[in-house]
Amino acid sequence: MGPxxxxxxxxxxxHILKYLTGSVKTYANSVQAYVxxxxxxxxxxxxxxxxxxxxxxxxxxxxxxxxxVVEILAKFFPEYPIPTKCKDETKPRAKPYIFSNQKLKDLGxxxxxxxxxxxxxxxxxxxxxxxPVQPTQTDDIRIRS
Length: 145
Prior knowledge:
By secondary structure, the chain is mainly alpha-helical. It contains 6 helices and 4 strands. The chain has one domain: Rossmann fold. The chain has helices spanning 11-21, 37-48, 66-76, 102-106, 114-127, 137-144, and strands spanning 26-27, 31-34, 62-65, 85-86. A two-stranded parallel ribbon has the order 1-4. A two-stranded antiparallel ribbon has the order 2-3. It starts with 10 loop residues before the first helix and ends with a helix. Keywords: NADP, Oxidoreductase.
């Protein structure tokens, strides 16, 4: 997640774009790990420049259910047709898996929050022309008065 460097939409961003455009009416009953692309780049540099760094480092900020993702998107961008129903409501909600990014934190890396990354992802999608900018409710009220 985070700002797009390239002019095209990549695989890790496509589901976010689909939620915003209305091309999907439901969200999946699944979980996914999320991290800002800028944090991944910083982690690579930090590990390269730290001689004592060894082993595996998990670079992810959190694991969210897709329902949590659409809730965050809806709070920031209520003007878009974001799905509110799970595709498979008959099964129990998928549970997030447990991970630790403590090794990176111990080296001083501070990860951006998922909320910040999602917000900046959407703004980047708008700036790159992948997502039309919708008037917000306050913009609509201002236009009418």
